[in-house]
Amino acid sequence: MAASFIPASALMRATGRAALALLLAAGVVGQALAQAAAPQQLRIVGGLAGLNQYTRHEEPFWTTELRKLSGGQLSAEIVPFDRAGIRGQEMLQLMKLGVVPFGTALVSQSAVAEPLLAAPDLAGLNPDIASLRKSIAAYRPQLEKTLREQHGIELLAVYTYPAQVLFCKKAFSGLGDLARRRIRVASPPQADWVEALGGVAVSVGFAGIVDAFRAGNIDCAITGTMSGNTIGLHELTSHIHPMAVSWGIALFGANQATWKALKPEFRSLISRELPRLEQAIWAESERETGEGLACNTGAAGCSSGRRGHMTEVKPSAEDDRRRRQIVADTVLPRWVQRCGPQCAEVWNQTLGPQLGLPAPPR
Q1: What's the whole-model pTM score?
Q2: CATH number for 198
Q3: Are residues 156 and 192 in the same domain?
Q4: Residues spanned by the domain of 304
Q5: Are residues 53 and 153 in the same domain?
Q6: Residue 341 located in a structural domain
Q7: Closest alpha carbon to 153 in 249, 251, 86, 253
Q8: Per-residue pLDDT of the chain (362 residues; tens, 9 = 90+)
């Protein structure tokens, strides 16, 4: 049989098509490689703007360190919680929906919708940071379970802000002297604590504390030692009681679908490095609690705040006895009443045995 003859023009056309196909394939592969090489960027809603916990730790970690740790493959942009246009009470819901893929929820605000979260930082429960560490360690598995099962959120870190303490305009010698005083509070458990002392709880946002003092609407305020100094309470008040009423816990987590969609190596990296960020924030809060007290009283150790001349009302044994009694008789029962029978059961399985303080029946 005679061999078939293929015209040169047809051969060239076929070769051209093959070349074009190869070029197109190369383009697709190149585009895929370029996309694979492009760093993935996360969107983060962080903690409160202006505070050292955010400016010295959260922001640098997400905007600078993460890229270095991932070899340029993972980056993030972060906005402070109070500049993100989000109401604190809505954070859990927005994270559940994925509108906020990675977010920081302030427990004092989130507990309105999910009272179970408030347990480890109930007012009066942790007079010092050592107590707080124990409470968080005992309750952390429950925080993880609640966020995962009820809100579709993967808990990645637990942060704390400095101790929330009492600033007052007039002299007092201990907790027993606070009856009938109007005291600024930031959460229902703080209000329970104040009312058990015989005081009048007044709910005022942090930004309104100074105006409330100047208008004579409050006699005292519960707020952070250093944040109080920052807004000038050392000039508006005369006495400070350093026993922590509460601390200000923040929960950092991710929408579960977003978290699972990350490459396994990225999840491993974040899970490995976030404990370091968490520890740094806790250390900052402990340091700032002490420095805030030093600055307000004008003591040595004040380096970044403004020196005041406040009188430190040192906690007495009677103050500690009264604190424990108020937690047992008022703060814990009212929390259980708001939260429900399930919360009493959870308390008795976690914090109750550690503290020797069972939750009362509802």
Answers
A1: 0.85
A2: 3.40.190.170
A3: no
A4: 164-247+297-355
A5: yes
A6: yes
A7: 253
A8: 444 434 444 434 544 454 444 444 445 444 444 444 567 999 999 998 888 899 999 999 999 999 999 999 999 999 998 888 888 889 999 999 999 999 999 998 899 889 999 999 999 999 999 999 999 999 999 999 999 999 999 999 999 999 999 999 999 999 999 999 999 999 899 999 999 999 999 999 888 999 999 999 999 999 999 999 999 999 999 999 999 999 999 999 999 999 999 999 999 999 999 999 999 999 999 999 999 999 999 999 999 899 999 999 999 999 999 999 999 999 999 999 999 999 999 999 999 999 999 998 76
Contact (Cβ atoms closer than 8 angstroms) between residue 77 and residue 41: yes
Show the DSSP H helices in 215-261 as ranges.
Answer: 225-230, 233-236, 256-261
Q: Dihedral of CA 62/63/65/70: which sign?
A: positive
CB atoms within 10 A of CB 191: 21
Do 279 and 263 share a structural domain? yes
**Residue 155 and residue 168 share a domain:** no
| Helices and strands, counts by H and E, the chain | 17, 11
Q: Pick the last residue of a domain from 267, 289, 311.
A: 289
Indicate whether 138 and 98 sit together in one domain. Answer: yes
Domain total of the chain: 2
